[in-house]
Amino acid sequence: MRKTSWLVLVSLLVVGFVVPGCSSGSSALTVATDATWPPFEYVDTDTNEIVGFDIDVITMIAEKADLDIEIINVGWDPLLAGMAQGTYDMAISSITITEDRKKQMLFSDPYFPAGQIVIVAKDETEITGPENLAGVVGAQIGTTGAFEVEKIEAAELKTYDDIGLAVQDLMNGQIAAVVCDNPVALDYVKVNPDDLKIVGEAFTDEWYGIAVAKGNEDIVPKLNAAIAEMQAEGAFDDISRKWLE
Hints:
Layout: H1 6-12, E1 29-33, E2 36-37, E3 41-44, E4 49-51, H2 53-65, E5 69-73, H3 76-85, E6 90-91, H4 99-102, E7 106-107, E8 112-114, E9 116-121, E10 135-140, H5 144-150, E11 155-160, H6 163-171, E12 177-181, H7 182-191, E13 196-199, E14 206-208, E15 211-212, H8 219-233, H9 235-244
Parallel strand pairs: 1-5, 1-6, 10-11, 10-12
Antiparallel strand pairs: 2-3, 3-4, 6-15, 7-15, 8-14, 9-12, 9-13
Helix pairs in contact: 2-8
């Protein structure tokens, strides 16, 4: 089981991790990920490798679609900017498909449902869900969680480059709550059951997709065919059991 201390360590790790087995040559398609979002993408501090739900997904997709990929660890803001500018060929990083993002990049078919949910300290009694969220609330910058907090009048948004740092501040009593994707929230609570709890239900309806840089339109059908094949085989259920249960 991962320990709380990895939250700070992960934030110090820099760009340049390559998934074993993927080519690092110039012919490989670059796949950006922000490896600070467990259990979907994070750096295993024992091996220094990027692992997680999304990493298993893109690795299997690459095999089925016969794509040579190199997975690169970048921050969330540079990831989105890089996709908009065509710096990276693709990105998989718990990226919610939104209309605004569709203006800057292409997307595969959706592969995972996720909604925003509220995490609070274990002894919190006043905040029971998004309907009475108040005080300073943490979220990762540029995420749909941050956008949702901005809509809540009684909440004051505090943004973080790494969602783990927001959770750390919550456990230290420096903020009132954190809003993030429900599977990510559940993982933090599972790792820190004496300090954290979920309140309320997921209050948005979102889907993750694989982002593709404009100009790479030919990649999208290959991704979609692989996703459809994985769904038919039950591969997503297998990956979910590995990382989310």
